[in-house]
Amino acid sequence: MSVLSVGAQSYQLSDYLEKLPGTTFRRLYQQPSTAFAIFRRMLPHLAKTFVMALLYMPGPMLLSELDIWVRPDSKLHRDRALSILRSLHIVQITPPSKDKPQEMSLTTNFKNSLRMALEGGGNHNSFGVPSSLPVDPAIDIAFLDRYARKKWDDILHFVVDSVAENRSTAASSGPKASVKDLLLAGRLVERRSLKGPVAITQAGFAFLLQEANAQVWTLLLLWLEAASAPGSQLEVVDMLSFLFMLASLELGRAYDTDALTEPRRNMLPSLVDFGLIYIPRDTPRQYFPTRLATTLTSTASALRSVGAGFDAASSATAEADVAGLGEPADEKGSIIVETNYRLYAYTNSPLQIAVLSLFTQLQIRFAGMVTGRLTRDSIRGAIDHGITADQIIAYLAAHAHEQMARAAAVAGRPVLPPTVVDQIRLWQLENERMAATRGYLFKDFDSEEEYAALSGYADEVGVLVWKSDARKMFFASKVEQLRDFMKSRKKIEG
Amino acid sequence: MPRAIRGVLVECEPSIKSIIINIDRKNHDYIIEDLDETHLVIQENMIANLKMHIEDVLKDSYQKVKHIDDSDEDMI
Fold it and tell me: What is its main location (chain B) (predicted)?
């Protein structure tokens, strides 16, 4: 249930995969598309080189020979690559022993599947079966991009809208109830009261700041996690390989739903809700992967910066390009922050305005621009929602207008006015002016010796929080061990 | 025989501590023990209530500052 305990950090595919047992990997790697997708997306270049070298080796290779391939000063990279390969169960290394040197080889399923993916052949259908039915010419790449963007924006809006003042944007149909439940289960948003509106959490804000590709994976992993709960019909391994298969499909092409297995067909409605695939109403036997699906395993969009990724997710007018879903042609920021806490944002995007309204007191909206002010109340409101000062500062810095960046570079100053940055931090600190620790105050000791023994023991077991030798008092966070200690002391004395 | 009293140890700046002591003065229902300049032990069930009170006091003092430095209207 690691998803439920997710903190400020959002959930990542690699963390998820590393927790899977070896048997799961063996089954995953039966699909050539999965082996290929893992190879493409999850491995650093050096690890890929190792895999390619091992792929057509007839037998295992001596581990010591690897030292000849890698320069001594790159030992760190080598070890990292090997540890990734082992954690993903791609490479197996024999345990060290006296009479036999260590050998490494690819795991059987991975080797066979990757070979098949590269060479073609087999009738595994793991790269999808194109539909033979006629395709509606209206469904082109631009249409699919618009569709996926609309779906994804709805989801992001749902996360943001929870606190946005402007409810008119919510009029556009929000995401399906199932998606909302996932976001709630993943603690990206939470319901403060039983029937009340949902509110964004710290994890939700971190989610917004991720690039679109990571966002999609976060949601998909929540979906997987929900499916692995007892009583669920769906099977996680099959879901994962289906996702990897979708990632290998071609954008703008129609695929045949009849070629899918029954459980996979049952996953289609959820994937439609996420905007990963599109199913035309009049030809339900066809499905189209959208850019959200086909870029799942491409590193091109995964390597985008957080800021650019957010622009991509938030810019409503942007045209789609190859790198990712609707990444804007120019990646410049739009926010100007002045030393008097005034904020100007050159944007039309309702989503970006909604994000700003999380921590800004917006005042006037013009065509293409909003103005507002960072106030104590607006920042405190955001902090009450679990958004940290650092997240706000990072957001402002990542989206600072190029004019600000230029002026700062000329003067050799930081991009954001230091007074504003400090004040945002101070506003947060205000809330934390009191550090509270639950526990027990120990006082009224009979003797100096008794005090010294017990407080010393409390310190030893790590429960001592505060003490004053002069007043013979101390504060401990836990009482059980101390009680036992006192009892045993009694016995010895008595 | 030493006593163990359940409570919440609060660590804060002296200025905040003086606010807490002021709040406690009315009914003496918050503070269990005044430890030193920056430490107090507070009744466990009163912590949320106390935070709210401190918030109110701070808000009042900040409101005054805000009116002085807010010169929005004549800038537009």
Answer: nucleus
A194-222 pLDDT per residue, tens: 666 677 777 777 777 776 777 888 888 88
Contacts of A430 in chain B (CB under 8 A): 58
* Pair of tokens at residue A5: 């305990």
Decide if the complex's ipTM is over 0.90: no
Question: Given this model, what pLDDT does residue B67 score?
Answer: 47
CA of B64 vs chain A CAs: smallest distance (Å): 13
C-alpha distances (whole Å) from A345 to each of A32, A137, A357, A377, B36 are 47, 39, 11, 20, 48
Region of A374 please: left (phi>0), alpha (psi -120 to 50) or beta. Answer: beta
| Chain A closest-CA separation from residue B23 CA (Å) | 15
DSSP A126-150: TT--B--SPPPTT--HHHHHHHHHH
pLDDT band for position B6 (cuts 50, 70, 90): very high
Share of chain A above pLDDT 70, in %: 83
pLDDT of residue A399: 83
pLDDT at A317 over 50: no
Please report, to the nearest 10 degrees, the dihedral formed by the alpha carbons of residues A98, A99, A102, A105 taken in order. Answer: -150
Q: What is the distance, to the nearest Å, from the Cα of residue A167 to the centroid of all Cα atoms in its chain?
A: 27
Measured distance CA(A204)–CA(A218) in Å, rounded: 11
Find which of A360, A429, A441 to mutate to test the B interface (most B CBs within 10 Å of its CB): A441
